[in-house]
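Final report, closing paragraph on structural work. Over the funding period we assembled a curated collection of sequence-structure pairs, and we close with a single example.
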Amino acid sequence: MQDYKAYLDETLSFEERAKDLVSRMTLEEKVFQTLYTAPAIEHLGVKAYNWWNEALHGVARAGVATVFPQAIGLAATFDEDLIEEVADVISTEGRAKFNAQQKYGDYDIYKGLTFWSPNVNIFRDPRWGRGHETYGEDPYLSSRLGVRFVNGIQGHDDKYMKAAACAKHFAVHSGPEDQGHSFNAECSTQDLYETYLPAFKACVQEADVESVMGAYNRTNGEPCCGSKTLLKDILRDEWGFKGHVVSDCWAIKDFHEFHKVTSTPVESVAMAMNNGCDLNCGNLFGNLLMAVRDGLTEEKTIDEAVTRLVTTRMKLGLFDDQAKVPFNKIGYDQVDSKEHLEFNIDVSKKSIVLLKNEDKLLPLDKSKLKTVGVIGPNADNRKALVGNYEGTASEYVTILEGIKEYLGDDTRVYYSEGCHLFKKSSQGLAMENDRVAEAKMVCEMSDVVIACFGLDPGLEGEEGDQGNEFASGDKPNLNLPGLQEDVLKELYNSGKPVILVLLSGSALSIPWADENIPAIIQGWYPGAQGGRAIAQILFGEYSPEGKLPVTFYRTTEELPEFTDYNMKNRTYRYMENEALYPFGYGLSYTDFELSNELIDADEVVQGKDVSVSVNIKNTGSMAGAETVQVYVKVKQDGAPNWQLKGLKKVFLNPGESKTISIPLHDRAFGLYNNEGELVLHEGEFEVFIGTSQPDARSIQLTGKKPYSKTLRSNQTLIL
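Its predicted structure, as stored:
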């Protein structure tokens, strides 16, 4: 009788099958399965598998795929449903590419179904180079978008995962990049639970994220990829995480080389494995053989890790009859399809934020324009379309190209680079500011000037990314680099109407532009089709609807030290100064009116939701979308200013209205204490309903004051 192989029995659970398969492996085979380059085990029918793949805003680094706006731009949509749709397209293309690669025996890096996305770290400091990979500075927004991204990647099949998502980098990680491998991020338990953990917790408990990646740094003295506090006490014991943990790439060698918490590679791998790190992005886990030999870790600990890893691969259908896995039918025609391209333009339009529009300069009427000047180092910069962790688009449309295509032959478009993105001259051997005369001439020839400035991912990104010119990927300050502001002032001095389009993955300090330039658009890194989207916004084909997922500060000087992880005076929730442009802010070409605001309770009671409802009407002349935002202010000493606790994006035609309701759970009124407990305090809470924050600057910029109501709680209790 043939040997019964339980791991091939599709009637059993994935966990039972995984345990059986692992029990048939030698110690050496098991150890090599904990490396991201997991080799084949031929006598068991296990194929080689490379775990490392990226899908931050499209399938990355593996050839052609739809390249969506960078994550920070996706966050600016404030649209949970849209984020899941984007992630669903990404995983469809990921499966299509995987199916094709498997067919031709390609098991290389970036060719698997385990996507190391989303990045749900909090963008606590605008100087951080990798902030554009995140969903911004707010734990609630990051939680909601992170959950829906994971849902879109992993799918909703009853049995199989479409692809596996990974929440990273756990936890308390946001620079400085040049010290990341040795840095100790110190934070209070209160800040840990109130700010740094919520998005991870939501991904684990609400979205069943399959994987969590540790961070490079230490948190309160423990290296994150070997932290008992983070990986055991919080992630597995407190939150009940069942998936697998992966190290950041080559982070485990930092334990002995830079953090100095261990002395040898063998001690480092034992520390990681014993504290719950299952998979090594890197090659150090080969030392687990010595760690077992030396009694530093037990074989059964490795068994548990490999069982978790095999379970993930089984959930992806990699051990089953291929005809039974629905996602194996996704064909290569789904990659970079016409439908995905059109959807990408749509997503890009929804991400763009209108920061200023004096005297309704925008939208422009192309029938009244004979000449348009497009000036600036980001006007024709492909790099500024995509951000980092990007795929390869089959077509890139820069702002210059998008405007030219939109205007056609009837309007003459003049172009000048204006200046280099960050250097003093555009051409070698030339004098400083060698494009300013050309820029002035373009202004003279043009009816209107579109100024395209900002950053690109060569100036902000991960340490070691090619081309980071400043501070290893972090920004030294929030100013426009190089000669950009000087050239912008020359454009303004021409007397022609100037529209400033900023492409960047983070907040820039532009108080001069805010005072002097009549119209300003924040375009982020708007994706491969970004030029088309921005042209449609500029010329009124679409009304802007994006909101800022980060605060735009007036200066760098008002910020605490970059290395200080205390949340005091950081982000809209704790800042003391007035913002230039606040979190949650963004204008439209149409107008919306809120009425019949109703909060159905006077008291906050444990276990009961408070229902918030409001009528929203488009009172303008253009179709558009608006985000209703609900904030809660706990009236206690030391509490945050107020915190976003509910949001709903609504699309309305002119004259159309809708009534929406948003539930506020009891947890929305709680604050964490220094023991990590969520406390509902006795006292008062103010609930705000509006289309922005309730701060004075937002009210000044929008001319609208959110509705508010005070609720009470009659006792203090732990939720």
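The mean pLDDT is 96. The two ends are 58 Å apart (CA to CA). We thank the funder for supporting this effort.
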